[in-house]
Amino acid sequence: MTYRVHVRVMPRTGLLDPQGQAVEHALSALGFAEAGAVRIGRAIQLDLAATSRSDAEARARQMCDKLLANPVTEDYLLEVEES
Amino acid sequence: MTYRVHVRVMPRTGLLDPQGQAVEHALSALGFAEAGAVRIGRAIQLDLAATSRSDAEARARQMCDKLLANPVTEDYLLEVEES
Amino acid sequence: MTGSAVAGSPEASAFPGERPVTPEAVREHNLNELEYGRILELLGRAPTMTELGVFSALWSEHCSYKHSRPVLRTFPTTGPQVVQGPGENAGVLRLPGGWAVAFKIESHNHPSAVEPYQGAATGVGGILRDVFTMGARPVALLNSLRFGPLDHPRNRYLFAGVVRGVGDYGNCVGVPTLGGEVAFAPGYTGNPLVNAMCVGLLRESDLIRAAAEGVGNVLLAVGARTGRDGIHGASFASEELSEKSEARRPQVQVGDPFTEKLLLEASLELITSGLIVAIQDMGAAGLTSSSAEMAARGGVGVEIDTGLVPTREEGMTPYEILLSESQERMLVVATPTRVAEVQRVCEKWELSATPIGRVTDDGIFRVKHHGLTVAAIPGQRLVDDCPIYHPEARESEEARSRRSAVPPLPPKVDLQNALELLLDSPNIASKRWVYEQYDSTVQASTVLGPGGDAGVLRVPGTDFGLAVTVDCNARLVALDPYEGGKAAVAEAARNVACTGARPLGITDCLNFGNPEKPDVFFQFREACRGIAEACAAFDTPVTGGNVSFYNESPTGAIDPTPAIGMVGLLERVERRVPSHFAAPGDDVLILGTTRGELGGSAYWAEIRDFVGGRVPSVDLEAERRLQEFLVAAAGRGLLRSAHDAAEGGLLVALAEAAIGGPYAASGVGAVLDLERYAPRVALEGLLYGEDAGRVVLSADPADGAALAELARAHAVPLFRAGRTGGSALELRAASRVLSWDVEALRRPYFEAIPRRMQHADAERSAGE
Amino acid sequence: MLNVAVVRFPGSNCDFDTLRAAETVGANAYVVWHGDTDLRQADAVILPGGFSYGDYLRSGAIARFSPVMQAVQRHAADGGAVLGICNGFQILCEAHLLPGVLMRNAGLHFVSKPVDVTVERTDTPFTGDYAVGQRLRLPVAHGDGRFLAAADTLRMLEAEGRVVLRYVADTEGSPYQPNPNGSAAHIAGIRNAGGNVVGIMPHPERAADPVLGLADGRGFFTSMAAGKPQPSTAKVLSR
Ligand SMILES: Nc1ncnc2c1ncn2[C@@H]1O[C@H](COP(=O)(O)OP(=O)(O)O)[C@@H](O)[C@H]1O
Ligand SMILES: [Mg+2]
C-alpha cells in the first residue's frame, strides 16, 4: 500500500517566530487585522510504501524524529492518508 | 468566534523542488528508502476572528491570494477549525 | 579583597509563588559555598530567589571572569592608538582623520553545540550589538570555527548548521564577512567552537560609553519583546556540556536579523544625534547584566520595574524577565526630557522604546514588579565582589612527553605525493565552501575578500583601509601553550602585514577547558603569557576579548584555542597586496629563515599520523622586522603578492600562491631553485616544516634591487627562488626535481570540503 | 541633473552602496522611505538589494505592499526607468512589474561570489553604455536567485528579447561555475515589455570602483546618467 503523509513542522511554542511576526504585521497592514497568533513552519508531503496505516505512521514518526523536525526548536504533527 | 486556520502552501507540481529532493536523498541515506515524492512547502497557522466558519474561510482565502502564496509557483490548501 | 564596607542591604520580598532559596537551589544556580557566603555577608540577609538568579548570572564565569581576571591583567592594553581598552562593549583604536575602529570577538560555543544554526546566528547578532552600541557602524564580520573531523556525520551537521547560521544573520543585517578560519580536530567533537568577530567604524567624537549617569535619568527597553528564551544562558556558558545540557534545550534563543538591522539603524541614529546618555546590549544575562554593569560603570544605582518590560508571553516572573536572553534588545539611558524624541526615532524604525526604570542615587540595584521590591542589592558589590580564584596550574605529564616524542610511523606517501594529500585535508584546503555562503561584498567596500591572508576594506571617503584577520593554530597551543600563544599573535600580525597593513591591536577569544583542572589552567596561563609578550613586541595592545572556559564534553577538553582577532591600518588602500601570484614572469622570493622544524606540523599530523614534537619557537624581534619590511615594501608598491607560510609549511604556501584566488580562471606556475636555500635542512623539513616568520613574495624583477636593499635595511633574510610562469610548480632542491601540475593541485584544494559536505544539511541525527 | 530615487524598505541593506554609486556618475541620488508616496521628480528609481522585511515568507512578498510601491507602479507605467537589484528584482517580480519568480538557489545555499554574465540588451536605460555580448564580472550575493517562469513566459521572454543579462554557461569541468543558482536559461536579468523596468540579480553597485578590483558594474550607472539608447515607449530622461 502507498500512503501519503503530510507533516506540519512548527516552531515550538514560546520560541520567537520572527517570520510569523512579520507576516502578522503585513496582514494587518493589508486590512486583515482580525488575524493573530501567526506562526510559520514547514509543510512536508511524502509518499510512503507500508503494510498498514499504523505502520506508515510509525515510520513517518521516525523520519520526523530523525530528520524532518528539529527536536530542539520544533514540534510536528502527522497526518496519514491512503493514496 | 475565533477560528484556527491552517494553510499548506506547496510548490506547484512539476516544479523542481531541490529542497524536497535533498530531503528525499537524506531519508534514503538514513534507511527510509520507502519514502518518495517528497515535497516541501510552508505551513502557516493563524487565529482568526470571524462570524462563521465560511466567513473565516473566505477571509483566509483572500489572505492566501494576496500574500501567503505566490500564484505563479505555489498552490495552497486551507483547513479551518473552531478554537 | 574588596567590599569590607558596611554589609547590609534594603529588604526585598519573595515574589508570590516563588520557590524558597534552599541549598539545592543555590547549587542549581552554580554558586558554591564561598560565593553564597559572600552573598549573605553582602546583603546582611538571605537573598530572594530573584536575587539568587541575579547573583548567579553576574557571578557566572562568563560575566565575572572569576578564574581569568588576574591573568588577563597581564596583557598590554595601552598605547597612543588606544581610544578604549578592555572593559567596554568593544575596544576602540584611533585611525587617521578623526576616524576610529571598534572591534570585538565573542564566543557562542555552547549554544551552537545544542542548536548550531540559532547558536551561531545569535552569536553574530550579539557581537554586532557590542560594536554598534559603541556608536560604530559595523563594516566587517569574521568568524573562527572549530569542529570534530568531517568523517563524522554529526560534525558535518554542526559545521553546516553553524556556517548557515553565521551567514544568514550577517547577510541579512548587511555586514560583509571578510575572513575567518575553520579547523577540524578530534578534541572538538561534541564541543565545537563558534567565535564571531565584528569590526565597526566611527568618528572618534561619536564614541559613547555604556555608563549610566545622571540621577533621575530614564532607562528604556528598546527592540524585541522579552520572552522565556535563553534563561540561564550565561551560567550555561560556564559549565561543561553533559547529558544535563540536553534538558536545557527549550531555552534556545532564536535570532531575528531583520529586527537587528532596524535596531542597528535606530541605535546609530540615537547616538549620533546625541539623544541618549548611554546604551548597552542586553546580551548574556540580559537585562540583569546590562543594567547592573551600566550602573556600576556610572557609579550610580538603578531601579527597574519588571512589570513595565514588554514581554512576549503572559505571566512572566521578575526572575524570568531579568534573566531572559531574548535577542535584539537594548537598554538605553536618556534624560527625561529626551524620552519622547528617543521614542520617535525608534518608532520610525518600527521599534518600541519603553521606559522601565530610572537612575538612582543610592547605589542600589533595585528591582520592583508592579511596586513590590523583589531585589535590592548594593550595585557596585554585585558587579565587583564575586570571589576571584587563582587555580593551580600544572602541566600534565602527558603533554610534556608528547613534546619530546617523535613520529613512530613512516610517511604514508612520499614527499611528492604528500602535497596533494595536504591540500585535500580540510584544515588546509580552500574554505571557499564556507565563505561563499557569507556575503563578502555588501557595503561595496571590500578590497580583498576572503580567500587570502587577511580581508581588506576601504574606509569610504578616505585613502586608507583596514586589514582584518582572526588566527590560531590550536595544535601548536596544545603542544606548547606559551609558544602557541605567541604564534597565534604572530600569525595574525603576519597575515595583516602581508596585505601591506600595519598591525594596530588585537581582540582575543580564549577558548579553553575547565579552569579548575590544573593542566587546563596551565594552558590558559601560559598561552596568555605568550600572547602578552607577542602583543608587547608588536605594539598591538589587547583592546578586549572574551574568555570561554568549560569547553569540555564527555570525550574530554578541547585543544586550547586562543583565537586572535587583529586589525591593521593600510595607509593607502590601493596599495593592498593580494596573496596569490599575479602573472608569469615575476620574481618569487622567500622571506625569513627556514630551519625545517616539523614539530606540531600538519605534515606530521596528516602524513605520519602524529601530533607531537617540539613546536617552532617564534622569534618576536625577527617577526617584527618582517612585518615592518612588508609594510614598507607594500607602501612603495614593490610587491605583486605576499603569502605567509603557516600550516603545511613553505611548499603549501607556494602551492597556494600558484593555485590562485578562488575565482581565478587558472593558476600561475613557477620554476624555483632551492638548491642553495637552507642547504643544511633536510628536504622533508624544508618543504613541510612550519618555522614561523616566513613569507612567499612575488615582485616585478625590475624591483629586485630595491627589495634586496629594503630587506638588508630591515635585517630580514630574503632569498630569490625563481620566476613565476608555466603550468607547473617546479622545484629543484637537494639534487632532486619535484614538479606538480597546478591544475592537478587546484582540484583537491577546492573540492576537499564540498566533497565531504555534499549532503550535510540533512545529517543531524545520523550520528547521534 | 538626473534625479535618482533609491527606495529604502525596512531591511534594505544596499541602499547606501547604490546611492554612492549613483552619485559617482553625477546623479542627484536620494533615499525615498518605504512609507512615502512621492518619488520627488525621480527620473530613475532603484530598488536596492537587501532583505526587506527579513525576506520572511518570500523574498519581496511583503515589501511589495509598501505605500511607495504604488508610486513606483505609476512611474513605471509612465515609462519611467526602474532598476531592481537583487532584492529589488525579487520585489519587482512579486509586484508583477516583471514576470516570473526568484526561487531558492538550486544548491540550497546562499551564494556570494563574482560571476560572469553577458549583456544581451543595450536598449534599456541601464545598459546603454555596454555592447551586446559584452562579458562582465559582477558580484552576486543571494539565497533566492533562481529565476523561474512558466514555460510560455520563458519562451516569450526569449522571443521578445527581454533577457538583459545571462550567466555565462558553466565551464565544463571547472570547479568554478558561473551560474550560481540554477536559474532557467541562465537568466540573470530581464526587462519588461516596455524595456524601462529592469531586474537583475548581480550587484553592479558593488563593482563600480576600480579600488574594489571589479569595475564592470559602473556601466549601469553611467548608462542611467547618460539617458542613452531609449526603448521606444520610455520617456526621455532629463539630463
Ligand atoms: N570561517 C571563515 N569565514 C570566512 N572566511 C574564512 C573562514 N575560514 C577561512 N576563511 C578564509 O579562507 C582563507 C584561508 O584561511 P586560512 O586557512 O585560515 O588561511 P591562513 O592560514 O593563511 O590564515 C582566508 O582568507 C580566510 O579568511
Ligand atoms: Mg589565517
Could you characterize the architecture of this molecule?
The complex is a heterotetramer, with 2 copies of chain A (83 residues), 1 copy of chain C (768 residues) and 1 copy of chain D (239 residues). Chain A has 83 residues and is an alpha+beta fold. Helices cover 34% and strands 41% of the residues of chain A. Chain A has a single domain (2-82), classed as Phosphoribosylformylglycinamidine synthase subunit PurS (Mth169, Chain: A, 2-Layer Sandwich), CATH 3.30.1280.10. Chain A has helices at 18-29, 53-68; strands at 2-11, 35-49, 74-82. Chain A is elongated. Chain A starts with a strand and ends with a strand. Chain C has a 7-stranded mixed beta sheet. A 7-stranded mixed beta sheet of chain C has the order 23-25-22-26-24-27-28, with helices on both faces. Chain C has a 6-stranded mixed beta sheet with strand order 1-2-3-6-4-5. The longest helix of chain C is centred in the first third of the chain and has 21 residues, at 153-173. Chain C is globular, with a radius of gyration of 26 Å. The two termini of chain C are 47 Å apart. Chain D is of the alpha/beta class. In chain D, the strands form 2 sheets. Chain D has a 9-stranded mixed beta sheet, sandwiched between helices. A two-stranded antiparallel ribbon of chain D has the order 5-8. Chain D is globular. Chain C binds chain D through residues 164, 167-168, 171-174, 256-259, 261-262, 349-350, 435-448, 458, 460, 573-574, 662-663, 665, 746-747, 750-751, 761, and chain D through 10-11, 13-14, 16-17, 20-21, 49-51, 53-56, 108-114, 139, 141, 143, 175-176, 203, 205-206, 208-209, 211-213. The structure holds adenosine-5'-diphosphate (ADP) and magnesium ion. Adenosine-5'-diphosphate (ADP) is lined by residues 143, 145, 177, 179-182, 431, 434-435, 438, 450-453, 471, 495, 646-647 of chain C.
How large, in whole angstroms, is the Cα Rg of chain C?
Answer: 26 Å
Alpha-beta content class of chain A: alpha+beta
Shape of chain A: elongated
Q: Assess the beta-strand content of chain C as a share of residues.
A: 15-25%
Distance between the termini of chain C: 47 Å
Mean pLDDT of chain C: 94
Low-confidence stretches of chain C: 1-6, 245-249
Enumerate the distinct ligands.
Answer: adenosine-5'-diphosphate, magnesium ion
Q: In the CATH hierarchy, what is the architecture of chain A at level 2? A: 2-Layer Sandwich
- What is the SS-derived class of chain C? alpha+beta
Helix content of chain C: 25-40%
Major sheet of chain A: order of its strands? 2-1-3
Low-confidence stretches of chain A: none
Q: CATH first level of chain A: which class?
A: Alpha Beta
Count of distinct strands of chain A? 3
Give the tally of β-strands of chain C.
Answer: 28
Which value, in Å, is the CA radius of gyration of chain A?
16 Å
Instruction: Give me the strand/helix succession of chain A.
Output: EHEHE
The level of helicity of chain A is 25-40%
In terms of DSSP E residues, the strand content of chain A is 35-45%
Largest sheet of chain C: 7 strands, mixed
